[in-house]
Specification:
Oligomer: single chain
Structural class: alpha+beta
Number of helices: 15
Largest sheet: 4 strands, antiparallel
Length: 448
């Protein structure tokens, strides 16, 4: 039911405005119940929309205050229903958001300059916004959680849709994949480990700072610009091998042993422990695959593709017994779309290298081998088979029932939320500053 919350309130988790909003002369512009809405809050939301590229449909100085007021209604209901979120959940969401912003802006320092705030101030503001947004979302889910849609309702919805309102379903494909991960020579692994041992000696001796070496040499693009710092994370957010070492570190002046994960080889340094979370730096080095090994992988898959085309065995059998892709190996090589939890992809949802290959293929065709970077940042060789293709079309009940059911469910959910807000306004004190009343609000009950 989370789609209702997303559709009904578009921006409950704002970043917050850049330094331009610091110049706003603050004043109370709305009061909802016993909660005030400040002019600076509206400006923060407006700046956030610009930063996120979110289009506001209408005058932002009318739309945004109404959104904030609706959120106040949900937060008041949360108090009545004793709906809360845990501190751990909030902190995890804050850390994820901070890490994302740092990646977007290039470094912690650039983020602090952009928002004209320290990291601590940014985190505190985010904690408040994220906690309130998540609580409001849970209230909405409670309101719409028992909605059930019958096949008859879906059919009636579709039957009554004007022809120009029938949704268009983009072209979708099902893809099977078989991969070969070229073997890394032992001498390359030994060289990587030797480099990491050298880094450790330089850090322990005081010759170099861990953060400096991470900035210069780490192959983790997400943390390199921050001197290898990952930010506070729980065990479940880290790879098990990495977490086992990181959470056992005790001395910030020491460097861990070399840790191997699916991404490569790491050394780790403790920054701070805080309850069940830890903040560490790391340096990642990846063994590089020589061209000869890459050529051998291409030749290997080229041979397999020919054998499948000659019916010596099926693609499904080859995927199960030969493929190095652990995520698809036990599913006959069929790729799963994480956005929909189905095997159907729109082309733009596929990894770019695969989409380029699939775009020109016919159903049942097997591609030539091609190189790609997998989710772990490793260079692998792959062949794919186009299992099915459904051309873009206007939705039909027979082919797109689930999509239409989702539309009806969301429609009913939004209607219920609208009714809830309308009723809530009848018993809620609202006062709007005269200078902010000249708006065509979605709900007429604000001004009584």
């Amino acid at each position: 039911m989370k789609s209702f919350a997303a559709a009904f309130l578009l921006a409950l988790l704002p970043v917050f405005a850049a330094k331009a909003q610091d110049n706003v002369i603050d004043e109370v512009i709305w009061v909802v119940g016993d909660e005030a809405i400040l002019k600076s809050e509206v400006e923060e939301e407006r700046m956030n929309a610009l930063y996120e590229g979110i289009q506001i449909d209408g005058d932002p100085y009318c739309v945004i205050p109404e959104r904030l007021a609706i959120k106040k209604l949900f937060l008041h209901q949360a108090e009545l229903d004793s709906i809360e979120v845990t501190e751990t959940e909030v902190i995890q969401m804050v850390d994820a958001r901070i890490n994302w912003m740092i990646q977007q802006l290039g470094s912690q320092e650039q983020m602090e300059r952009y928002f004209n705030k320290t990291l601590t101030q940014i985190k505190e503001k985010l904690k408040q916004n994220i906690r309130e947004g998540r609580i409001a979302q849970l209230v909405q889910e409670n309101i719409v959680g028992d909605i059930k849609v019958t096949p008859a309702e879906v059919r009636n919805y579709f039957k009554d849709l004007p022809p120009d309102s029938i949704p268009f379903i983009p072209t979708q494909v099902e893809v099977q994949i078989l991969t070969s991960e070229p073997a890394v020579p032992q001498e390359e692994i030994d060289d990587v480990k030797a480099r990491l041992r050298d880094f450790t000696e330089r850090i322990v001796s005081g010759e170099s700072q861990f953060s400096t070496l991470a900035l210069l040499y780490s192959e983790d693009p997400g943390s390199r610009t921050r001197g290898g710092e990952l930010g506070f994370m729980g065990k479940g957010q880290l790879l098990p091998e990495f977490a086992n070492v990181a959470f056992n570190l005790q001395d910030p002046n020491k460097v861990s042993k070399i840790v191997e994960t699916e991404y490569g080889f790491h050394i780790i340094q403790l920054i701070e422990k805080r309850g069940d979370r830890v903040n560490v730096r790391h340096i990642l080095l990846k063994p590089h695959i020589p061209q000869e090994a890459l050529d051998n992988a291409v030749a290997h898959l080229d041979s397999i593709a020919d054998k499948i085309r000659n019916n010596e065995y099926t693609f499904e059998q080859a995927a199960m017994y030969i493929s190095d892709d652990k995520d698809t190996r036990n599913n006959h090589g069929i790729m799963a779309n994480p956005n929909t939890n189905t095997s159907k992809f729109e082309l733009q949802e596929l990894p770019q290298e695969i989409a380029k290959v699939v775009d020109g293929m016919k159903v049942g065709e097997i591609s030539d081998p091609f190189m790609m970077i997998n989710e772990n940042g490793k260079e692998i060789c792959a062949i794919v088979k186009l299992k099915s293709k459904t051309e873009g079309h206007k939705a039909t009940i027979s082919e797109d029932y689930q999509r239409l059911k989702d539309l009806v469910t969301q429609k009913l959910g939004n209607e219920r939320l609208h009714e809830w807000v309308t009723e809530k306004l009848k018993t809620t004190y609202v006062r709007i500053d005269d200078n902010w009343k000249n708006c065509d609000f979605e709900y007429k009950g604000w001004i009584k």
